[in-house]
Amino acid sequence: MRNFRYGRLEDYEGLSPENLEKMRVKNTGCYNCAARCGKVHVVKYGPYAGAESEGPEYESCWSFTGPVDQTCIEATVAADQLCDDLGLDTISTGGVIGFAFELYEKGILTKNDIVGLELVYGNHQAMIALIRKIAMREGIGDLLAEGVLRCSQKVGEGTEYFAMHVKGLEMAGYEPRGLKATGFGYATNTIGGSHNNGALALQELGIPIPRALDRLAEDGKADIVIYNQNQAALRKVGIVCAFAVSWGDWYKRLFNQMLVAATGIKEFEDWDYLHQVSERIWNLDRAFNNREGFDRKYDTLPPRIMVEPLHTKGGPGEGEIIKGLERFLDEYYKLEVGLKTVSQVHKSS
Questions:
Q1: CA-to-CA distance for 83 and 63, rounded, in angstroms?
Q2: CB-based contact 170:147 (threshold 8 Å)
Q3: Coiled-coil region(s) at which residues (predicted)?
Q4: Which candidate, 71, 158, 166, 230, has a CA 20 to 30 Å from the CA of 344?
């Protein structure tokens, strides 16, 4: 919350499922899917009346609440629709808006920079206005449209410290200091601070496959991060729903059979062979990054995460930081998932 300074949103009752359900008009989903996980909501009253969104899903709900410390669910639905209509990613948009609010709080952005806006926490009207400005690159929106990395580089004044990104991509809505394996997943993710690509460690949320994890512990998690990254690689090439296959072990019994039926490739019946396939996919991603200069020093997290204790007002993550990233990377690389040698790449190929 407030650009990853706090781990708890006060007065969150406004975002309750009950309030969201009052706006729900129908369920939807992908073609022929029985799950129908899409939820269409329409705001029926107030300044955002008429706003309609197939969501907001968790990430969008976080992006337009926590970073700016606001709990108006109607504004969140409106922000989600606006990003969809204007072609903006909700996570990056919420992240850069949260960054702008902190710049204003610290006096780095002034009223002259944000003419007509008041970037004070809780001001959802300013949040909505910034979304439009970012899309149109109007005024301060021209700077914010560059994302937090380039913003911090242009603004300077030590803002790199609280530019919350990994490899230039704004971080998703999972607190690394309270979910350590997830933080390590962010750091080593080939695309940056996304919760996808296996970064989100569901084992820290209680899923015991291959084993559950203590979310605040740092040691002994490299193999789980690798496991999650490999599973994500298979999901991508298999073109299967992450929601459907992320929560249990059924895919280990059925996923290979699905691939054989779809492709006719008998080798896919062997789960060990599929594991090798997933490693090859990940190695190719890493090889591309390494060629472009993204070596170990880019497998890192924002300074705030590693030096500034998390504030949760008495929650279990109170005072936590990530202090063992380099130790984790040593273990991660020893398991042959880091910077590959040419011979290792050829061997896995």
A1: 11
A2: yes
A3: none
A4: 166
